[in-house]
Amino acid sequence: MIEEHIDIQTADGLMNTFIVFPKEAGPHPLIFFYMDAPGKREELHDMARRLASAGYFVVLPNLFYRSSRDFYLKSRTPEALELMYSYMNTLSPKTSHTDTQAMLQFAGQHAMADQTRISALGYCMSGRIVVWAAAQFPDRFASLASIHGANMASASPDSPHRWVGKLKCECYFACAEIDRWAPAADIETLEASLLAAKVHYTLDWYAGVEHGFVFPKREGIYNAAAAERHWENLFQLFDRTIQNK
Hints:
The chain has about 240 residues and is an alpha/beta fold. The protein has helices at about 40-55, 80-90, 95-110, 125-135, 185-195, 225-245, and strands spanning about 1-10, 15-20, 30-35, 55-60, 115-125, 145, 170-180, 200-210.
């Protein structure tokens, strides 16, 4: 595989980004991998490498670049968590549009990236970001995957469940049974909106696991069996919507 650390120019500055893709002749279908709140880190780079090893061109940006180029949550002290939440609160549909537009422009200029086959992947914080992105660029995304997405249904106008009517892509939502950031009532609201909008979706409950169960370094929360099931479902989605398109 080929991997690089690059800067993507956005309207708000330089977005430091990890890209990885197969050496074999492309262009390869694209996965825009939107990070979770603890930040762009080696754990996510390894996940991107796993995706690339299956034939995908993966773009993993630091979404906090407006505030910090190198933040990641090293410890869960009150001070560190407060800083993380402050960075989270800077993100919105507007920043999502800016960042996704820049990623699309970058992909359109890279010979190894197939800009006609794109999927969006988001975890936790970015579960809602992938909905915003695919809703804002409905003709560009063939699929999206939101894995234990947080705050998927709220009273806010920015709530993802209010945006699903703009989606044209196939959607996969993986939900942890034990998740204070996405309680069952919120997911019911999300699903009602998906049904009303006639979105092509799968909503998949993962029994007995907690928010963050896919991350190998999330001590006490990582669940290997459930994580592997999530990988199987992701690859089926990507194979169906962008690999074999």
